[in-house]
Amino acid sequence: MDVPSRLPDPSPAELAVSAALSERIKIAVAAAQGFLPFEAFMAEALFAQGLGYYLNGSRKFGAAGDFVTAPEISPLFGQAVARQCLQAQAYGDTIIEFGGGTGKLAASVLTALAGLNALPARYLMLELSPDLRETQRQLLQALPFANELEIDWISDAPATPARGIILANEILDALPTAAFERDDAGFLERGIGVDDNGALRWQARPAGGRLAAALTERLAGCSLTPGYHAEINLQQSLWVADLPRFIDRGVALLFDYGGPRREIYHPDRHDGTLRCYWRHRLHADPLWLPGLQDITASVDFTHVAEAAIDAGLQLAGYATQASFLLANGIESHLQAAMAADPASAMRLAAQARVLLLPSEMGTSFKAMALGIGDVTGLTNFALRDERHQL
Ligand SMILES: C[S@@+](CC[C@H](N)C(=O)[O-])C[C@H]1O[C@@H](n2cnc3c(N)ncnc32)[C@H](O)[C@@H]1O
Known about the structure:
alpha/beta, Rossmann fold, five-stranded antiparallel beta sheet, 13 helices, globular, binds S-adenosylmethionine
């Protein structure tokens, strides 16, 4: 997947941001003796203060941005998530959302729960981006029932863990990933260097430390031939193990692009799963104008499940997004919304198709529920429980 030749031109201001970030990355490469691990590069590209993609104030979401996510596509997504929350609210009255984007998921979940007379006591958002935090604040404070619950923004876990629900849509795939390559002798780590012309370039060196251990442990059953290269995330297990600091009894609902390990590391996928988005164009070159594009990689949900179990959590559910949404009443939400506003029927039906169809988001995105503390299974989690696929 090369960079498409006809990408829209970035503005001079955008080019200036990317140039400044590239300089910063080159300094980091020099400080790392000429080899910056890809994970460190991705952390800079997405989260460098004031310059990285998520922290430089650029427009990311929606038609004028770079990509759309399920809650941006339709409130039907949040209505189904709310149905699941309703059941999980038995464990506690707090919802904590990681990386809430423009706040649309929070708004649709809370609106649906308000309609069911089931607002939580608190909705807490952990958002790294100051401008997205402000966008969320404006949207949520304008909700007609905003003064009936506490809506707040946090930068770390509460002093005492809460009880209830964690929501994270497309967070796991934004956590910077390591990259590797297979050669005749074994595994190499992929990283970024600077070539003779001063440009950022891919490089490789023998894999060591945590990366080598993770490659040996996780990929033992995968038949990868020399030349194969892909990504392996070393941060997701730490993120999952940290969840009980936020909620010590309840359920974490995670939604992301990905699948079981054998699909992520299928021998035919020999170029990995890196995806970069700029103005709704998809390509696979993370070195193209750092800071202007989102960079993600598919989530190995087998690894997320293993990490959760190692951390003492329970794998309470795993299903395709379509199966999760159908089990949580998306059809009845759609019918009710169409009946309430017939003029929007076509638009709503089109939104539901994007969320559900296998050719759109229905099967490539997955939903996973992790139980934290003493919780029992979630009965309406999925129409088809696919935990056995992991
Ligand atoms: C692709 S966006 C998804 C936004 C939103 N959840 C949605 O579905 O529209 C990724 C989000 O993850 C956030 N993020 C990345 N790493 C994070 C972390 N460690 N903690 C919390 N948020 C994080 C980013 O700031 C960004 O808001």
